[in-house]
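Fill in residues.
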């Protein structure tokens, strides 16, 4: 059984915001340079390791899901609790996702026409609507959403994952953790498909295979296991010695500045997350107002940055780059890109994400009040068990 939850998780929200911005800048850099990490060291490698921010999302998601929903299935599977869990995840990820999908389809139709676009692609469209495209079925219409699709698979299997990592015997936890590590090792040595553009050894994302799902489930499992390990002794167990936190963070930074240490970087992410639950320097920095704001709009930032990047690419291809000089144009484009992405993400979060989430939560209460009562009773019982 899991123990007491940490007092302050705001730094985790801040970490999610930094990770989302890191992904966006990484994609901007790849758009311009189209290079690999094979011979990159130092800050350049740090920038181009931005694809590993998605692995931060996966590990962080597993940790937060354990923190928020792990107790739902502490006493076995319940269809009612599972319905509440899935409805809440739907409220969190689906409204903005389906809006971006509809917008992208509309833009594609405008350029290609309705019949050519839909001919032979009905299955692809259906799988995207149900967020199942990256379960080995098809491509993503909204490219960054590949990670949302594979994470949806983790949501579907969450009761089973919770049984193994959160509520099962220690042997199950150990076996699950070893399986996650084996998954990452397999991905690190597995040759990517010939058509798969790969920046780093774990940069496995959009293709017609289950490899991206393995990447997600391995990270998600490490997040669940980290929560179980850290909470085993109650509130005091959340504290990590400051020197361990600092050493782990510095080691992670070093690995991100060296090519082909991607696997080690990913395995250090759980230590980073656990260290942020304390009141260290890094945790305080991630809890500042500006960084917390980034964390709050991080999901929108992640989803919208791809379409904005397409516009930036077209602008850089015009005569504007020649009129002010290529380096100046790129710098101006980067600043404009970051500002625009944050502004659009903030608007999408405020005008779409939050109202839609509130509406779905109200629908949830109307749809099945008994399920809500069952969840609340489970929460009260969980608090009583920890007291």
């Amino acid at each position: 059984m899991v123990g007491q939850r940490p007092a302050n998780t705001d730094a985790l929200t801040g970490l999610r915001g930094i990770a989302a911005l890191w992904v966006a800048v990484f994609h901007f850099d790849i758009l311009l340079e189209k290079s690999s990490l094979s011979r990159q060291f130092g800050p350049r490698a740090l920038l181009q390791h931005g694809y590993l921010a998605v692995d931060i999302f996966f590990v962080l998601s597993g940790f937060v899901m354990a923190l928020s929903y792990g107790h739902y299935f502490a006493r076995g599977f319940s269809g009612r609790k599972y319905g509440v869990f899935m409805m809440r995840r739907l409220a969190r990820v689906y409204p903005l996702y389906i809006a971006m999908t509809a917008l992208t389809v509309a833009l594609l139709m405008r350029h290609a026409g309705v019949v050519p676009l839909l001919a032979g692609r009905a299955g692809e469209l259906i799988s995207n609507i149900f967020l199942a495209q990256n379960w080995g079925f098809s491509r993503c219409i909204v490219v960054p959403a590949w990670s949302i699709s594979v994470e949806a698979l983790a949501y579907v299997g969450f009761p089973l994952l919770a049984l193994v990592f959160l509520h099962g015997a220690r042997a199950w936890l150990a076996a699950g953790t070893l399986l996650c590590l084996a998954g990452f090792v397999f991905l690190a040595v597995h040759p990517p498909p010939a058509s798969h553009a790969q920046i780093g050894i774990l940069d496995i994302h959009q293709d017609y295979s289950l490899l991206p799902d393995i990447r997600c489930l391995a990270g998600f499992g490490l997040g669940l296991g980290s929560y179980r390990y850290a909470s085993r002794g109650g509130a005091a167990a959340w504290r990590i010695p400051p020197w361990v936190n600092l050493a782990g963070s510095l080691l992670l930074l070093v690995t991100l500045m060296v090519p082909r240490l991607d696997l080690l970087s990913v395995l250090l992410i759980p230590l980073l997350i656990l260290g942020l639950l304390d009141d260290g320097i890094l945790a305080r920095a991630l809890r500042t107002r500006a960084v917390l704001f980034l964390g709050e709009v991080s999901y929108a930032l992640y989803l919208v940055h791809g379409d904005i990047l397409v516009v930036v690419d077209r602008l850089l291809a015009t005569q504007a780059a020649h009129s002010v000089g290529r380096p100046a144009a790129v710098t101006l484009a980067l600043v404009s890109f970051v500002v625009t992405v944050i502004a659009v993400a903030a608007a999408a979060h405020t005008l779409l994400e939050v109202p839609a989430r509130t509406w779905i939560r109200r629908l949830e209460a109307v749809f099945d009040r008994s399920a809500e009562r069952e969840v609340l009773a489970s929460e009260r019982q969980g608090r009583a068990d920890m007291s």
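The chain has 18 helices and no strands.
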